[in-house]
Amino acid sequence: MPTFKLTIAYDGTGFVGWQRQAAGTSVQGLLEDALSELDGRHVDVTGAGRTDAGVHALGQVASVSLKRAIDRRTLMRAVNSRLPESIRIVDAADAAPSFHARFDARSKTYCYRIWNGEVMNPFERAYVWHVPSPVLDVAAMASAATLLEGRHDFAAFQAAGTDTRTTEREVFSSRVRAGSDLVQSPGDPPQFHAKAPDLITYEIAGAGFLRHMVRAIVGTLVEVGRGRRPPAWVGEVLRSRDRSGAGPTAPAPGLFLVSLEYREAIVS
Amino acid sequence: MPTFKLTIAYDGTGFVGWQRQAAGTSVQGLLEDALSELDGRHVDVTGAGRTDAGVHALGQVASVSLKRAIDRRTLMRAVNSRLPESIRIVDAADAAPSFHARFDARSKTYCYRIWNGEVMNPFERAYVWHVPSPVLDVAAMASAATLLEGRHDFAAFQAAGTDTRTTEREVFSSRVRAGSDLVQSPGDPPQFHAKAPDLITYEIAGAGFLRHMVRAIVGTLVEVGRGRRPPAWVGEVLRSRDRSGAGPTAPAPGLFLVSLEYREAIVS
Questions:
Q1: Interface confidence (ipTM) of the complex
Q2: What is the pTM of this model?
Q3: C or N: which end of chain A has fewer Cβ atoms within 10 Å?
Q4: CATH topology identical between B3-103 and B106-259
C-alpha cells in the first residue's frame, strides 16, 4: 500500500467545497474518482482542511494510500489528466503508511484577500472580497489582528450552531498588510492600473481552526478598518466568546488555504 | 456633446471579442448597450484595438460622445453598474470633441504570457498559453524578439487571407523576459508554489499591428525557445514576408492589450 502526500491547488469557484457531498461537485469527490479509476478500486482521499464552497487552495494537502505500485511523477500526471483544469496536484511525495493529512498537520496557513478599490479588478472578481469604500484603515486592522495571536477560546469567531468538543485554538500569527507579499513569485499576472493599496491581505497561521473562523475574523477586522470600532474592540469580542458580537462572516471567494506544515519524519 | 476617453479592463473569456458581431456577446456591444440606456439614444463606442475572442485587456481605450451632460465619475459608476463584473471602466477622462481612440493612438502595448511549468497553475488557466515542456530557452527567445524592433514589412506575421493596404508597421520595442515585471503592483494575487521561471512574458509596443500579428510572433518565438530554430531564423522569417514559414498562431487567452498612448493635447 504505497502512501502519498499530495499537495493540491484549486480554484474553488463553482465547487460545493472540498468535501464530497450528496449533491454538487466537490474537490475531494473528483480526486477520489480519478484515483479510484487509476487504482481499480475505491480510494479514500483525506484532506487536511475542509474548505467551504467558493474557497480556494494554493497548497491543500491530502493523504492517500493505493493498492497499485506507482511512482509519484506518474501518479501526478495520471491524476492531473483526469481532473478539470481548475484542480491540479502540484506535488506528490512518498509518505509513511501512517501519514494522515489532517491529524498530523502541525500548522495551517490561510490568507484572505480584500479589494479596497472603488472599481473592481475584473481579473480578481472570484478571488477577493470587494469593499469599495471607505478606504480601510490598514494600520488599525493590523493592530487589531495581532490581538488574536496565542492560545484563546475562539467561540466568538465560530459558525453559529457548530458543535465542537472545544473552541480553544492556538494561533501562531495573525497579520494584516497592504498589498500581498504572502507568496513572492515571478509568476504574478499583470494587473490593471492597480493603485496601491487596493489589495489588503490578511494572513493567519494556527494549529487548528473552527468552522468559518477566518472569515468571521476578517468580517470583524473590517469593522475596525471602516472606523466603526477601535482595534481593542476585537480583543473584547474574543473575550466575550459571543458570536453575535463579532462582525459578519466575510464572503468565501476571498479565502485561500495557503499551506500546511508537518513534521519532517512523516514524509519520507 | 461631451466626449470621453474611457479606459477599460476586461477578462476576454467567453466574449466573441471586442467588436460587436451578429452572434455572441461582445465587449463593444455591452458598452454600447449600457451607454445607450444612459444617454437615451444609440451611442457608438470606438475602441482603439479590436481584440479577438478570448483576448484580455488591462487598458483598452474607447472614445464616446454623449448627448446628455454628465460628469466623468457619474458616468463611470453608471456604466459599470450596467456591465457584467468581467468588464470595468477603470478611468473616464474628458476629451476633445474630435478625439478618436483608434486614429489618434500613437502607440499600443500588448503582452503575451506563457506558462512554461509542467503543472499548470489553476488560477492562470484562462490567462496564459501552457507550454509544459521543454524548458524554453528564454535568452534565445529574447535575442530573437529584438530582431523585430523597427519599421518592417510584417506580412509574415499576419493572419492568412487578410487584406490591408500595407503590411508595413513600426515596432518600438519587442522584449521577452522570464517572469512578469511588465506591470508592478502590490495587488498581485497569491501564487501557488511558483517555481521561477514558470512564467515567460513577451511585451511588444508599436504604432500599429496587423491581425493576429502578436500571436503569430509569439508562436514563432516559441519555436526558437524549443530549440527547433536559432534566433536569427526569426529575422529570416520577417524578411521572407511569407506567413507559411513562421510558427503557429499562439492561443488567444495568453494575450493582453495593456495600454494605449496618445498625445497629451487630445485629452483635456
A1: 0.88
A2: 0.90
A3: N
A4: yes
